[in-house]
Amino acid sequence: LAVLGEKGQETIPRSVRKQLHLHGGDPLLVDVAKDGTIVLRPAGVYPVEIYMKERLKEFAGENRATPSEQRQVARIVRGR
User: Fold this and answer.
1) CA triplet 60, 76, 55: central angle to 5 degrees?
2) pLDDT given for residue 80 in this prediction
3) Which residue of 26, 27, 30, 49 has the lowest C-beta tally within 10 Å?
4) Direct distance between the N- and C-terminal alpha carbons of the chain, in angstroms, rounded to an integer
5) Per residue, what are the HEC states of 49-65?
6) Which helix (H) or strand (E) holds 74?
7) Are the CB atoms for 11 and 40 separated by under 8 Å?
8) Tens of pLDDT along 23-72?
């Protein structure tokens, strides 16, 4: 049994956190099922790199892109 705090916070029991290897600050997805059940799931967070023109040129120079990707890079670099 758990009780919702005044500020809407919930404490996940230690046994559940341990079983799921959850730690304070871990991101969780919150969903509501059709039957009204609240579903919490660990969220995967992955870093995202936004490629600047210089970085795209590096990829093209290293020939790590497919021909199609190379054409896309060329359009981006040219500003089209």
Assistant:
1) 45
2) 64
3) 49
4) 58
5) CCCCHHHHHHHHHHCCC
6) helix 67-78
7) no
8) 999 999 999 999 999 999 989 888 888 888 888 778 777 767 788 887 88
CA atoms within 13 A on the CB side of 55: 4
Say if residue 57 is exposed, middle or buried (CB neighbours under 10 Å; 0-12, 13-18, 19+). middle
- Residue whose structure tokens are 């730690």: 23
Look up residue 30 and give its DSSP letter. E
pTM for the whole structure: 0.50
Task: Let me know: does 58 contact 65? Beta carbons within 8 Å.
Answer: no
Question: What torsion, rounded to 10 degrees, do the Cα atoms 58, 60, 63, 65 define?
Answer: 120
**Token couple for 69:** 């990707």
CB 33 within 8 A of CB 39: yes
- Give the single-character DSSP code of 41: E
